[in-house]
Automatic annotation (TrEMBL):
Residue positions binding Zn(2+): 9, 12, 31, 34
UniProt name for this protein: ClpX-type ZB domain-containing protein
Keyword Chaperone applies: yes
Assigned protein family: Belongs to the ClpX chaperone family.
InterPro entries: Znf_CLPX-like, Znf_CppX_C4, Znf_CppX_C4_sf
A Pfam family reported for this protein in Swiss-Prot or TrEMBL: zf-C4_ClpX
Length: 126
C-alpha cells in the first residue's frame, strides 16, 4: 500500500508529520512551507527575475554542498522506495513482469530482479 507515512519533503528534507503536511506524487513530496515559499517566489516578479538562470548550488559553500548531499540521497531513496511500491501495486493488479519490463525498457527477468521483494512475490512468478 502506498502511503505518505515516513516520507520527507523532497525540497527541504523535513520529515512529514501531523504538523508538517506533505503533498505530492510520483515519489516527490513537498511540505506546505515549501509550497508557500515557492508560491511567494513565483508571484513576485522581482524575486523571479533575481533567480532566473541561477541555481541554489551556485552560491553554496563547499560545506553547504556537502551538508545537502544526505538530503539528496534521502530523497533519491524515497523515490526508489516509491518505485517499488508502484510495482507492488501493479503486481497486485496482476500486471505481468513481462509488461512491467517492457514498460521500463528492460527484460522481464531484469524487472523481476530489480523489483521482486526478497520475501518473494508468492502469487506471481517471474
Amino acid at each position: 500500500m502506498i502511503t505518505r507515512e515516513g516520507k520527507i519533503c523532497s525540497f527541504c528534507g523535513e520529515p512529514g508529520s501531523k504538523d508538517l503536511q506533505l503533498v505530492g506524487g510520483l515519489g516527490a513530496q513537498i511540505c506546505v512551507s515549501c509550497v508557500d515559499d515557492f508560491h511567494a517566489i513565483l508571484h513576485d516578479p522581482e524575486e523571479m527575475a533575481a533567480r532566473k538562470g541561477t541555481f541554489p548550488w551556485d552560491t553554496m559553500s563547499d560545506a553547504e554542498l556537502l551538508a545537502t548531499l544526505p538530503q539528496i540521497m534521502a530523497s533519491a531513496e524515497q523515490n526508489t522506495a516509491f518505485a517499488h511500491e508502484w510495482v507492488d501495486l501493479l503486481r497486485e493488479r496482476s500486471i505481468s513482469w513481462a509488461e512491467i519490463g517492457r514498460t521500463l525498457g528492460v527484460s522481464r527477468q531484469a524487472a523481476w530482479e530489480r523489483f521482486a521483494r526478497k520475501g518473494g512475490d508468492k502469487t506471481h512468478t517471474a
